[in-house]
Amino acid sequence: MSKVIKNGTVVTHDLTYKADILIEGSKISEIGQNLSGDTELDATGCYVMPGGIDPHTHLEMPFMGTYSSDDFESGTRAGLAGGTTMVVDFALPNQGESLLDAIKRWDNKSTRANCDYSFHMAVTWWGEQVFNDMKTVIEERGINTFKHFLAYKGALMVNDDELYSSFPA
């Protein structure tokens, strides 16, 4: 089944122009003039653009005795209402918890997401296990961004030597 978004103003990284967009299945197959499909949506007066990506979210995140206000369901629903179609959330291990166990917890939380998502991995403590887990997270999950806390001394902060030790991962 094909769909056409007709008469919209297409927005790209460097241009805006009037065009129709043909969607076949779940993929854009053509952008042009006077396209037709099984279903048509009139976008006259509307901008048609890719969805936004929010690369810094804290959904269902426990932090120093509190929790963030949005969970994966409400946070992603709110994002979609504003045109955000993907979020990158921070998976935050507890002190002493492996990165792999933290990712499993975030996987369970994210089952209620209403849009695409990925993760950044937080480094909340340092040791050989964390170093080895970083390699596994990169190789097996494709997560290659890591947040090191340089604040919250005595709780989450890594020192300069620990930070430097993580770079080869």
Q: Mind sketching the topology for me?
A:
Elements: E1 2-11, E2 16-24, E3 27-32, E4 39-42, E5 47-48, E6 52-57, E7 62-63, E8 66-67, H1 72-81, E9 84-91, H2 99-109, E10 116-123, H3 128-141, E11 146-148, H4 160-166
Parallel strand pairs: 1-4, 1-5, 6-9, 9-10, 10-11
Antiparallel strand pairs: 1-2, 2-3, 7-8
Tell me roughly what share of residues is in helical segments.
10-25%
Q: Major sheet, described briefly?
A: 5 strands, mixed
Provide the domain count: 2
Radius of gyration: 21 Å
Number of helices: 4
Strand content: 35-45%
What does this structure look like?
It is a single chain. Strands 1, 2, 3, 4 and 5 form a 5-stranded mixed beta sheet that branches. A 4-stranded parallel beta sheet has the order 6-9-10-11. Strands 7-8 form a two-stranded antiparallel ribbon. It is elongated. The chain has helices at 72-81, 99-109, 128-141, 160-166; strands spanning 2-11, 16-24, 27-32, 39-42, 47-48, 52-57, 62-63, 66-67, 84-91, 116-123, 146-148. The mean pLDDT is 94. It is an alpha/beta fold. The protein has 2 domains: 2-48, Urease, subunit C, domain 1; 52-166, no CATH class.
